[in-house]
Write a structure and sequence with these properties.
CATH topology of one domain: Cytochrome Bc1 Complex, Chain D, domain 2
Largest sheet: none
CATH class of one domain: Mainly Alpha
Order of helices and strands: HHHHHHHH
Number of strands: 0
Radius of gyration: 30 Å
Number of helices: 8
Structural class: mainly alpha
CATH architecture of one domain: Orthogonal Bundle
CATH superfamily of one domain: Cytochrome c-like domain
Length: about 180
Amino acid sequence: MDSFEINKIVAAILMVALVIIGIGKISDVIFYVEKPKTPGYSVDIEQAVATSTTSSETTEEKIDMAALMAMGDLTIGEKVFKKCAACHSIVKGGKNNIGPALYNVVGRKVGVVSDYKYSKALAEYGKEWTFEELNGYLIKPAKWIKGTKMAFAGLRKEKDRASVILYLNQNSDSPLPLP
């Protein structure tokens, strides 16, 4: 290949680059958009976080467990519990899987299954699995008990939580009376 051929190739590449740059400049002139001086909206992050935590604390305090449990349905609870069954067993005498066995869980103290290694947070929690505790925990386990190993995202729908709690309560030697 002689130098004339190389010059033609280099010239073609430079011409294409100039055409692309030129088209960009011409389109900026034709389709001029004036940028606003201030953004269209501003987000105050500290205020939004403070508002959301305040509202979640008040909703946690004001939950009417009787009304919530009235929403529950055992058949729905059994279906929703299939998400939990990946890590937990619910049968009497069932073995621990990734998570502890949940038979007789309602009314039992948190973190007391003898042959299961709980996270430090659950082992030291010191409360019982009441309807209120289960409801709060099932919303988002990692937020309810900070430091838990349970990596479940939670159940957002109240009906699903109530149904699972009813299902857990039913799977017990002596189910607790509903609130």
